[in-house]
Design goal:
Elements lengths: L5 E6 L6 E6 L7 E3 L1 H5 L7 H23 L3 E16 L2 E16 L2 H14 L1 H6 L2 E8 L1
Parallel strand pairs: 5-6
Antiparallel strand pairs: 1-2, 2-3, 4-5
Helix pairs in contact: 2-3
C-alpha cells in the first residue's frame, strides 16, 4: 500500500479565518486558503481546486497506461477537472467533476476513446470521488 499525506492548518472562524495547506512532498508548503479563496475568487487555493488537480493528473496517468496497452504511441495528454461545489440543504456538497481532455497520439481513434472512458471510470481519484464524472474528449 502506498500512503501519501496532505495537511491543513486553520485559525479563526469560517468567514474571517485563514488556513494553510501543505503536502508531504513539499510541492505545496503553507499555501493559503480561506473563505475568500473558496467562495469569492480571491488569490489562494481551495479544496475543490486541489481535488481538480489531483483528478486531472490521476486520469492523465491512467489514460497514458491504457493508451500504451492499446499500442498508441507518441502520446500527449492535457486534462482539466472542474470540480463543482453545490449548495445542498444548509451546507455544500461536491456533486460533479467534469474532465476535459485533449489527447494526441498515433493509434486507432476507437482505442483512444475506449481507453479514455476506462480511465475516467477507473482512475483511483474517480473511484474516490464517487460522484457524477463527465468527460469531454478531443483527439487531435
Amino acid at each position: 500500500m502506498i500512503t501519501k499525506t496532505g495537511s491543513a492548518k486553520w485559525q479563526g472562524d469560517l468567514k474571517t479565518g485563514k488556513g494553510e495547506v501543505s503536502t508531504q512532498s513539499g510541492a505545496l508548503s503553507a499555501q493559503p486558503y480561506g473563505f475568500a479563496t473558496r467562495f469569492e475568487d480571491q488569490p489562494g487555493t481551495n479544496p475543490e481546486e486541489l481535488i481538480g488537480a489531483a483528478h486531472a493528473s490521476c486520469f492523465s496517468m491512467a489514460l497514458s497506461k491504457a493508451l500504451g496497452d492499446a499500442g498508441v504511441t507518441d502520446v500527449t495528454i492535457e486534462t482539466t477537472s472542474a470540480v463543482s461545489l453545490d449548495k445542498e440543504g444548509e451546507g455544500f456538497a461536491v456533486k460533479k467533476a467534469a474532465l476535459t481532455s485533449t489527447v494526441s497520439g498515433n493509434g486507432d481513434r476507437a482505442a483512444i476513446e475506449q481507453a479514455a472512458q476506462g480511465a475516467k471510470d477507473n482512475c483511483p481519484i474517480s473511484k474516490l470521488l464517487n460522484t457524477e464524472i463527465t468527460l469531454d474528449l478531443t483527439i487531435t
